[in-house]
């Protein structure tokens, strides 16, 4: 009871809102396996299957329990104004009365957690839903008509074909010879699919009874949703960990935009700042959209002048310049995005693989750049989100001409800048990372020496142990481990007191951020650290290098004639990278999944 009251007091301190009522939640699993959510994705929620006020009644509801398929018949009102009798008459269709169509349903995977809730007697009863199906109509009468027409067409074609001339005695008749090739993986998958389909068709239907919601039987089933045993659930974990399980920390997404500004805020800015904020929110816009959303402008020429300062024109659409993006921190990212815009200016479609290989960014980072301004079209590639704005190009041909001159002037500049960044063995951006890496080590000694009987000390110990185990960690992995440790019981466990600011401060004091993953700043071994710092600088600009490139960079950066020792090279690369192919190393993604792949080969 003391623990419960203490926890309640902590919640009251953290939240200023007044607590009006506490409602017990009862988790019920009596019908969890039997409940199924029916979805009708082709039917809006405001349109019933029945035109009358009464709900539509399904007929002949049946199910294949093994493959979890359902089928129901829905009666069609032939006297409705939407029913076309001429179509039935003109095509000589023998449609029975009453006319029914089938609604077939297949099981679909759950994309999130669903539950049925009933509030009764001051308690909220929840029963999880583990099955969900989607109903779609099948028009068997249309399929039958199509098959009938195809059969008639085939019969007519056979009549029109000339009869074959009989061969004379002794004339050689060619024979067709076929040989069976070895089954490919694709053919094997198709064969397996046919086998599954055959097994599905052979499974017999089981009839189901439809019970209306107003019937007594339906009420008895509903009672099972709140007639659960009254035993309290014992949760052996900290409340933070329990909340984290209910609402897990989402993994870092490169495509998430945390800098979105509301339209109300934007429209209260000066017109110059409005244009920049709109471009940063949307990344790509038409001229008409800018005119519609911006307020307080004098004329269209004013808007065009402001757009040309912070955006570039591609096929009539305005795309924010890389120099005006507030989420591009490094020269490499800006050079890569400029090259991407140049690619879209030259080509309608861009292949992500080609783009990623040319700019050398992390796969997710490259995809994020594409996601913001383009969409993927199957078997074609990435295409700009907006179609060409022909209206703007026809109305302002002088702007289009001016922008084309700009592209011609910048084409080689963009390519040269990207090549310069790619070829930079120890460029300015990497020197900045390295400087931060070295200088900050002298600042945080007191933090790293915090006693273990404090929350900061325990957190630093946990972080060091985690980095020692995994080498490279992303923010999700670190927070998951922290939340798990916070839930462990023990008198000396102070990790539950760690706040978000404390976590960030301690993490920054011992680790450096490289390509959206964290690594320890140093291993306290000067022999290893001097080479390790050079390699970390390299990975801050690119995610993959060959062994020869790493050895050469270490010799040039440290001005040593002798190559790095194999034992030192193996230890460092095992910690921070994995060997994707002989002699080629890729920076770990920090999830902990490729920790066993990181064995460097001699």
Describe this structure in words.
The protein is an alpha+beta fold. The protein contains 23 helices and 20 strands. The strands form 6 sheets. It has a 6-stranded mixed beta sheet with strand order 2-8-5-4-3-9, with no helix packed on it. A 3-stranded mixed beta sheet has the order 1-7-6, with no helix packed on it. Strands 10-12-11 form a 3-stranded antiparallel beta sheet. β19 (about 575-580) and β20 (about 585) form a beta hairpin. α11 crosses α15, α16 (about 430-440) runs antiparallel to α21 (about 525-540) and α21 packs across α23 (about 565-575). The model is unreliable at about 250-260, about 425-450 and about 595-600 (pLDDT under 50).
Oligomer: single chain
How helix-rich are the residues, as a percent range?
A: 40-55%
Query: In what range is the share of β-strand residues?
Result: 15-25%
Largest sheet: 6 strands, mixed
Nearest-integer average pLDDT: 79
Largest beta sheet: what is the strand line-up? 2-8-5-4-3-9
Distance between the termini: 61 Å
User: What structural class do the secondary elements suggest?
Assistant: alpha+beta
Q: In terms of per-residue confidence, which ranges show pLDDT below 50 for 5 or more consecutive residues?
A: 249-258, 426-449, 596-602
What coarse outline follows from CA principal-axis ratios?
A: extended
Number of helices: 23
State the total count of DSSP E strands.
Answer: 20
Rounded to an integer in angstroms, the radius of gyration calculated over CA atoms is: 33 Å
């Amino acid at each position: 009871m003391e623990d419960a009251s203490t926890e309640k007091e902590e919640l009251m301190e953290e939240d200023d809102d007044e607590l009006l009522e506490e409602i017990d939640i009862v988790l019920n699993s009596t019908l969890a396996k039997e409940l199924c959510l029916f979805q009708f994705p082709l039917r809006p929620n405001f349109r019933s299957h029945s035109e009358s006020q009464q709900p539509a009644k399904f007929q002949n509801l049946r199910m294949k329990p093994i493959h979890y398929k359902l089928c129901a018949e829905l009666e069609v009102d032939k006297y409705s104004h939407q029913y076309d009798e001429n179509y039935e008459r003109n095509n000589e269709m023998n449609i029975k009365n009453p006319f029914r169509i089938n609604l077939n349903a297949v099981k679909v995977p759950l994309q999130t957690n669903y539950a049925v809730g009933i509030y009764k007697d001051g308690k909220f009863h929840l029963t999880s839903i583990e099955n969900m199906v989607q109903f779609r109509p099948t028009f068997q009468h249309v399929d039958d008509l199509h098959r009938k027409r195809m059969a008639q067409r085939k019969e007519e074609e056979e009549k029109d074909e000339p009869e074959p001339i009989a061969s004379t005695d002794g004339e050689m008749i060619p024979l067709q010879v076929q040989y069976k090739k070895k089954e490919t993986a694709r053919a094997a998958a198709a064969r397996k699919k046919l086998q599954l389909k055959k097994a599905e068709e052979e499974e017999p239907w089981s009839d189901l009874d439809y019970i209306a919601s107003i019937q007594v039987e339906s009420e008895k089933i509903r009672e099972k949703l709140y007639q659960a045993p009254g035993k309290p659930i014992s949760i052996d974990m900290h409340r933070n960990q329990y909340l984290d399980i209910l609402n897990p920390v989402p993994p870092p997404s490169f495509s998430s935009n945390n800098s979105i500004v509301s339209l109300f805020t934007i429209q209260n800015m000066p017109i110059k700042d409005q244009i920049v904020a709109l471009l940063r929110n949307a990344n790509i816009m038409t001229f008409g959209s800018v005119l519609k959303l911006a307020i307080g402008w004098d004329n269209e020429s004013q808007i065009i002048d402001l757009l040309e300062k912070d955006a570039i024109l591609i096929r009539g659409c305005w795309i924010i310049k890389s120099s005006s993006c507030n989420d591009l921190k490094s020269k490499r990212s800006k050079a890569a995005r400029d090259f991407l815009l140049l690619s879209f200016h030259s080509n309608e479609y861009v292949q992500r693989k080609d783009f990623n290989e040319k700019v050398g960014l992390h796969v997710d980072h490259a995809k994020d750049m594409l996601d913001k301004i383009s969409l993927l079209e199957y078997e074609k590639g990435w295409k700009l989100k907006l179609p060409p704005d022909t209206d703007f190009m026809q109305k302002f041909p002088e702007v289009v001409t001016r922008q084309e001159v700009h592209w011609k002037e910048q084409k080689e500049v963009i390519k040269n800048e990207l090549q310069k960044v790619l070829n930079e063995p120890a460029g300015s951006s990497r020197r900045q990372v390295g400087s931060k890496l070295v200088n900050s080590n002298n600042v945080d000694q007191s933090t790293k020496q915090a006693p273990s009987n404090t929350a900061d000390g325990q957190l630093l110990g946990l972080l060091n142990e985690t980095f020692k185990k995994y080498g490279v960690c992303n923010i999700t992995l670190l927070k998951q481990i922290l939340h798990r440790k916070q839930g462990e019981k023990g008198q000396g466990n102070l990790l539950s007191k760690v706040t978000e600011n404390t976590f960030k401060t301690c993490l920054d004091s011992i680790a450096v951020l490289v390509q959206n993953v964290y690594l320890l700043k140093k291993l306290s071994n000067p022999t290893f650290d001097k080479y390790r710092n050079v390699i970390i600088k390299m990975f801050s600009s690119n995610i993959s290098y060959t062994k020869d490139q790493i050895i050469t960079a270490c010799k040039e950066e440290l001005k040593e004639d002798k190559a790095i020792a194999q034992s030192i090279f193996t230890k460092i690369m095992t910690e921070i990278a994995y060997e994707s192919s002989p002699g080629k190393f890729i920076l770990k993604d920090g999830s902990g999944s490729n920790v066993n792949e990181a064995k460097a080969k001699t």
